[in-house]
Amino acid sequence: MIAITGATGQLGRLVLAQLLKTVPADQLVAVVRDSSKAANFAERGVSVRVAAYGDRAALAKAFEGVERVLLISSNELGQRVAQHVSAIEAAKDAGVKQLAYTSVLRADTSTLSVAKEHLETEQALIASGLPYVLLRNGWYTENYLRSLPGVLANGALVGCAGSGRIASAACQDYAEAAAVVLTAPLESGRIYELAGDDAFSLADLAAEISRQTGKQIPYQDLSEPAYVELLLKVGMPQVYAELIADSDRGAAAGDLFDDSRTLSTLIDRPTTPIAETIKMALAR
Which domain of life is it from (predicted)? Predict the structure, then answer.
């Protein structure tokens, strides 16, 4: 059996849907905090088990009879390492044969602030002795499109990434990669650096939004402190304002660029172009 943690989240839901195309539903486990959010998977025959990140006992029970686990990283900044370690220990308690973890692109060299917790999790996983695979995911294109309504309303895309190149991919691309790894022959110690085939700057992103909407949307580049201040003014919590600005700073430093095409090789197709993801976002 294969278990997916965070199975009702943005990535987890897509991974489960992808697995259901080739894996019998009774061989899949959705590990969630709220079972009501997984009702659609339960109706299809997926086993829904309740366990929160950080609850080692509940996670060990959720992993009973499971051969492989996909540990999707928690979104609780500052608490993730402890939560992930609980999941790793629970997987070991349950006799899991492989744990795949969704990390961040080049976690061992990245200057992104989020990389620290990912790298510490990777180190804990390696030290555990549990067979592992690291899925070092690059940025999701969708990260830039959540603010699309505001961009269109304000007539500008704002950031602090300079001319940094971003090799992002659609969340669906990363989900398919996870499904491939989870259904491939068991392996351990494999690290996948995953990113989109094509890179773009935020000025390129603004130009594509302009092209598709028929509106002139320029890219306005700010300093990192000025961008944080702007995000705070529009009501964003400090921790997330700093995180978003730091990701742009990292983009300027090259942390979000990769040209290995490992992701498209793994999923056996080109990654989703930004133009297509923008088109889908505008249609919603």
Answer: Bacteria
